[in-house]
Structure formats: C-alpha cells, structure tokens
Design brief:
The protein is of the alpha/beta class. It has 16 helices and 26 strands. The strands form 5 sheets. Strands 15-16-17-18-19-26-20-25-24-23-22-21 form a 12-stranded mixed β-sheet.
Length: 620
Amino acid sequence: MNQPMIETVLGPVPADALGVVLPHEHFALYRGVTEAIEPPAGYLLMLETWERTLLREAQARGVRTLVEVTPIGMMRAVPMMQRLSRDTGMQVVACTGFYLAGKRPAWVAEQSADQLAARFVRELTEGMEGTSARAGIIKIAADSLTESEECQKVFRAAALASRETGYAITTHSCNFVQQHFDFLVEAGADPTRLYIGHADLVGDEAEYHHIATRGGHLIFTCWGIEHFVSQDLLASRIARLIEAGHAEAVLVSTDYAILIADNRMDVITSEYECPHRSHDFVLRYGLPRLRAAGVSDAALHQILVENPRQMLLRAAPAEPASAFVSATARSGLEAKTFSAETEADGIALVRAYTAGWRYSRPIDADLVAYWKTLGEHFQPQHMLLAYRDGVPRAFLHGEREGDVHHVHLLAMAPGAVEEGVWLLAQAEEQARTEGAARLCGPTCMSGRFYGGYVLGLEPYHPLWAEEGTQAFVQAGFHMTETEALMVATPPLARAEVAFPAGYEMAEVAHQPGYLSRGFRLVALCRGEEVAWCTGHLYPRLSAPGGGPVGQLGPVATDEAHQSKGLATTLVRLSLARLWDWGAAEVLISTGLQNHPALRAYEKAGFRRRYSQVEWQKSRR
C-alpha cells in the first residue's frame, strides 16, 4: 500500500513523519501589500538568523513540522522557507491564498473566482513564485463577508480549488467563525476540509459546536494574549469541546510572526505583552493550561499530531453527484433492495458503522423483524445496498413519506464514500420518479426504526463519521436545522417540585417505542392539557459508564401558558421518574437558538454534549 505523502517546500514527505505540527505560523510577514518574495538584502541575513534560532528552539520541544500561512501579497518568502527547512531539518508547509481586504494585490479585484481558483490549483499542483515548491494548504482571510463582494469571491475561489484538489482550507476568521464556515460549505467546500483560524475570539461557544458537529475544525492561537481572550476561558472552552466528543476538531498554534512594518523596514515581533512569545510558546504556555483544565495526554497527542496530519493530507477530489446516477456508472457497482437475500449484509454494515457510538448497541435480526411490523413505514424498495464486485459496501435506509424522501441512515464500509454518494444519487432518482419535493437526511424520524439501539445524536447525524459528511456534501446536500443534544446524570439530592397555582399534573396513556418503557406527563388547567413531556427508558441500551439510558421529548407548552415554568416543572418530574426507574443518563434535545429552552434544561440539570444537524436537498 502506498504511504500517504504531505507536500512541503522541499517536496513530499511521509505523513507519518510529520510528528508534532504547529498548524498556523509565519516567518517574515509584510504588513502592507507587496509582490516581493524575499525581504530586502539588508534585512534578509538578520531575519533568517533570527528565525533559524526560533525554529531550533521549537525543535528542542519536539516540533517537527510547521505550517507557514503567509499568503500571496504579504512577502510569502518561499526561497527563505526552503533554506531554513534545509538548514534546520524543520519540515515546512507553505500556503496559497489571500489575506484581508486591503492586503491583497490589486489584480485580485479584476479576476473572477474561477481565475483565482485556477491560480490556487496551479500553486498546489505545480509550484509557487517560480519555484518547484508546491503549496500544501489554502489560506484565506476576511472580516464580515456581508460587507465585501471581493471577500466572497476569494472564499468561493478557495472552495472551488479545495474541491478540485482535495487540499484543506484554513482561515483568518476571528469574530466571524461560523459565518465563514457556513459560507464555505454553501460554496461547495467539504466541511471536513475546513480549519477555521483564530477561533479564540468567538463570543458564543455554540459556534464551536455548530462547526465541530458538521465535521469542521477550529484552530486556537491567542495563547498568552489576555486582552484578546481570558486564558482560563480559552483553556476551559477547549476542555469542554473535548469532553463533548470533539477532540478531532481542535488544533492549537501560536501564530508567531516577525512583522515588517508597512511603509518602512522596521522589524517587530508578534510577542504582544508576552516575553519571548515565539513559535513554541503554545507548548511552553498553552499545554500546561490545557492539562490544568483536565485535557488528557491522549487528547493532546491528537490535537498536536493527529489532527494537523489529517489537515495536511490531501483528500480525494470531489466529483459531482451526477457522475453516480446510473446503476452501472462505476465499474463493478451494483444496487440491490433490502430483502431476505440482502438482509444479513445490511445488518452487518449498520453494525460496523455504528460500532463504538456513545449510545448504541449492535443492530440485530430482532430489530429488522420489528421494522416489518411498522406497516406502510417499512419500505424495502427504498432501502438500498451497494455492492462492488459482489462485496457489500454501503446501505441506505430510505422511506417516502408525503413529499419527502427520507434517508434515515447511510451506513458505509471504511473508504466507501463513492458507494455512499452513489446510493444517495439512486435515492434522488427514486424521489424524482415518485415526485418527492425534497430529500432529507437523518432526523428524529429515524428513531422510529432505530430507537432502543441507537439514541441521541447518532441516528440523526451522518457527520459522526467523517466519510458520511463527504458523501452528503458530494451528493449536493446542504445543512439546515441545528439542535443541541443535552445530557443529565442523577443528582446527589432531589429538589422539591411543585406546579404554579391553577395547574395540576396528570399522567396520560402512552404507547412506548420498541424495547422501551415510557410515560407521558401533562399539566392541566381547568381540565385541559396545556403542557406535556414524554419520557422513555431503554433498559437494554447502556450509557458509557454503565446503566440504562433515558430520553425526554417532545416537551411543549401551549402559547397562552408559556413563561410560567410548566415545561421546566414537567422536565424535572420526568427526570425524577427516570431516576427512579434506574436511568444512568437522560438525553434531551432542543434548537440551538431556543435560548429559553436551553436555559430551562440547564437549570433542570442538563448540560450540552453535541449539536445535531439535518441534511436536505431540494428537487424544486
């Protein structure tokens, strides 16, 4: 098997040789706009000597690779990068791309997104600045994209180039982290190839989860800069992301640069108020803070080694979904519907795909037998398997309901993105033939089929697996709804709960789902139901620490009776019921923008664990 290679300024190196990587650094950085690729001769020796010392200090702390993200027009000193890499042995990856508005060459305004993308592709595949050194990543920067058509054009160009080449995009985003991420995804970029820079400066932590749950990544660089962000807050935010299962989304760097002033050759450094804040500062200062916040050595290894390596690996270029429509479009591919002949293959694919998910147990024949009791909802003609040369590679669980064609689950064998995209195209062709208005990826409706086996985020969330993201993106789906999945554990003591005056609680009949025990509590006002909460316990589904898992929802209150604490009271009473039944953890979800519900659930003892999204593709 061929060893994956990473492009550096001295040529390709094996991916396994990268070691500890600093993913967002600079050597010399010109603060104006210049087409020059080297500092003036009078400064060159001083700058190289200075930078050589800093690189050796970083090497002494274990750094083996540095990503130099100085873009076109800011004195991207490729020849100096090559000399320093040869002299020190530090592996250096350079970038193509552009910085902020006003810091780009004048000709950028005159060129189209396609023309700019062509330049990026050329520098990624042929060479930069007249050298043989090829870029290994795309770097772009902007403030708010709503204020600049040129910035939007540059971002679209980056998305085009990334899709064509498979190289990742990294950004200078600061206060516009979510805006930049969403724009790039809408422009066609694969979310898993997006690395959003300077994420430290975001005010709302929910933006991190918005990106991480969609397969994106965040680079934190403001180490030691207290006037930018509280350092305790920075470390705790990263720790919470990791606790929520998003260690794969986190990268850290220092963002050090030797700055050359705009209109004179005065040289300063980006130390801010931190003495000797150089490339290795994140290791000297940031790592101890992360450890103090509870981040494990295993997580730090992932952040420093595995995540940057994944960033620099070149993914397979995206292909349009239309290339997969025909059942014989790709050599050796065959589609079959779910039947007695293919049932065992479908079960095996789903078992393997969901193995290790936080709230899951192996799919088995009992569940399939239950599907067959669901009447019109069980539609084997919409449940498709892809075989390549006779080997099962992907399973799509579909259902037509009204004008919506649901994709309840897309389970793929490792490396089977092409087969996954191909099945999505088959589903789209079915939707077209049957007149469905849109296709919808996994949602809460998936619980009809997988409740009791897979709970919470997973059945509704193809982003859990990176290759699932690639399949939905390549098939032309876009993300819509976003919800927070929250978790509660039993409290040390129970608080007394009472309804407001004029209301009383009642329990009404409720039909539990498959392999669950359930109830429905309601608030009554003058004998009428005005608020309600449904709960389930799944005795055969274990929480990560052991013990059964419970789930609450839906929870709702009639508009005329809102803001009286009815839903919060019902949630607390329902939690108490599930604790009495032996639940070890209870899950609930609500919209990320539903701040009253988020606050109410947090008061009841829930904390956020993941964000959930929904994939859709309109046919009109």
